[in-house]
Amino acid sequence: MIYRFRNVIMGPLAIFWLIVTVASVISGAMAWSRFSHSVEASVVAEQFRESIKHLQQITWMAALLGVGAGLFALYFYRIDYYQERARRELLEEKLRAEQAVREKSVFLANMSHEIRSPMNAILGFSELLEPDGLTPKQAQYVRAIRDSGSALLHLINDILDLSKLEAGKLELHPDPTDMRDSCEFLRTVFGQQAVMKSLQLQFELAPDLPRALMLDRLRLRQVLVNLLSNAIKFTERGCIKTRVSWQTQDNDGTGTLLIDVEDTGIGIPEDKIEEVFMPFVQADSRRTAEKEGTGIGLTIVKRLTELMGGTLSVDSAVNRGSAFHLRFANVPVSGRLPVGDHAEPGGAVDFNDFAPATVLVVDDTRTNRDLMAGIFENTHHRVHFASNGREALECLRTTKPDVVLLDIRMPVMDGRATLVEIRKQARLASLPVIAVTASSESSEEMELQSQFSGYIRKPFSRRALFLALARFLQRAPRKNPMKQPNSETMAGLPTPLPEQAAQWRELAVELRRQEAAHWPKLRDTLAVNETRAFARSLFTLGHAAHCPALATYAATLTTFADGYAIGQMESHLAVFPELVGLIEASLAGGLKAARKQ
């Protein structure tokens, strides 16, 4: 406002001052001319002429000063005009940039939603194919579909996170985190990849590391996943080592967490170290075809680290390896139990563990409804379907299900409006309604969790659905099928194919080692976190060796550990030696059949 007022006043004032000054000079000159003629005519004394001459000099000096003041005012007016125009242009650019950021955020959110919906079908149906009797080649194809879909989903999440970081919208949610548990998660995720490349995957944790630290566990996990993924990708021989240490600070309940991720890979040229943290840049673009990737992993690592108040530094040498050093100062030590950081074991769950129930699935996409039908196929549950909220309300007039799986974005009537109508009916006031959405906005997720009984984000696994339903459906009472190694149990444990015999032999040896080294302690102490880590390692072994019985056993044990169902966890742990015996017996039976052929 001040600048605008000054611009409006100073310009005309300067012009007016200049005109007055010039007019004064001209008028003074004319007066002086007339006066000098009259003086000459009167022959005035010399002293008087000197006074008049002095007056003339003063008049000219005043005129010059007036002209200078006018020009000076015009100069300042010009400068102020251009400054104001530049400020106005900057403000317009800022508004356009903010609008572009908002539009990009909306576009990415919509893109994420539109991609997640078909990804739910791709990952879901490929998961449904896994338990079936596939040939080795068919199983390989299914795994390729699932792995590629997971890679695409990971890429979508990275791009979305980068957009949120740039817009300053990514929020942190610290919770009690056990770094030992997080390292076991990383070992589970990357163990098989390291074995396939003959790399050693090592984790070193300081003995004084606290059990629970207040950190954003998921974001820290995302940082370490990106670092380890790059380390394995760009390392052909040697090892990848993750070292976690702790420095206590002045007895104030905080400390400094230090994490080092080192590899013996190709390294980064010194002049490229800063560039690798820029979006969509790789240290050597010639390797793009050989080493797939977008180049945003390290960008996210750096920005997430800084968002969490940490620092990131790199030491690297070409053909000798790289070391990434993370430092998080002033990390509080939590007195609460840490949250589990476990891997999703996929589809190794049995929905018949729940008592017979009625489920209403509301989704406008036919493929998603077909997926739900496939998940509940061959179970004792009854499933109803609706394509929008209005159809769901019509169904609820005649049927009261045990739980409703409700999509959010639908035509005719969306999920939120449907929930409002459901809650208006007294008989449905306590009906569990689980929101199922492909949205990736954290604010929307928190809103849905506060409104609905539960929340599932697309794409989801069978196990994610199982855990969501476990909060509302009763468990079916049934006997443990592996209590005794009888013929019925043997029938449920297929013999390995001839080409899988070597894998099963290695599996049996490893299971006996686990039985001797780890199982007795777990059986006696029933430590939940250690049992969860044990189950994850079993699931990885079962999946790698194509042993569904072991994978199912591990997934069930993980479910009991996650739910702190100590009694069921104890019973399930007790039958582990018998399961190992069944696997060995099945292997022996397969070898005997192969010899007869």
Structure commentary:
By secondary structure, the chain is α/β, with parallel strands linked by helices. The chain folds into four domains: 102 residues; 158 residues, Histidine kinase-like ATPase, C-terminal domain (Heat Shock Protein 90, 2-Layer Sandwich); 120 residues, Response regulator (Rossmann fold, 3-Layer(aba) Sandwich), CATH 3.40.50.2300; 109 residues, Four Helix Bundle (Hemerythrin (Met), subunit A), CATH 1.20.120. Helix content is 57%, strand content 13%. It is built from 18 helices and twelve strands. The longest helix is centred in the first third of the chain and has 84 residues. The protein is extended and about 140 Å long. 28% of the residues are buried. The N terminus is likely disordered.
User: Beta-strand percentage?
Assistant: 5-15%
Class of the largest domain, according to the CATH hierarchy?
Alpha Beta
Work out the number of β strands: 12
Q: Helical content, roughly?
A: 55-70%
At CATH level 2, the architecture of the largest domain is: 2-Layer Sandwich
The gross shape turns out to be extended
Q: Label the structural class.
A: alpha/beta
**Poorly predicted spans:** 1-5, 285-294, 341-347, 479-492
Radius of gyration: 38 Å
Could you state the order of secondary-structure elements as H and E?
HHHEHEEHEEHEEEHEHEHEHEHHHHHHHH
Q: Tally the helices.
A: 18
The CATH superfamily name of the largest domain is: Histidine kinase-like ATPase, C-terminal domain
Lay out the secondary structure.
Layout: H1 2-42, H2 46-129, H3 136-167, E1 175-177, H4 179-196, E2 200-205, E3 213-215, H5 217-233, E4 239-248, E5 254-263, H6 297-307, E6 310-317, E7 321-332, E8 358-362, H7 366-375, E9 382-386, H8 389-398, E10 403-407, H9 415-424, E11 433-437, H10 442-451, E12 454-457, H11 462-470, H12 487-491, H13 501-517, H14 519-525, H15 528-544, H16 548-562, H17 566-574, H18 576-596
Parallel strand pairs: 2-4, 8-9, 8-10, 10-11, 11-12
Antiparallel strand pairs: 1-3, 4-5, 5-7, 6-7
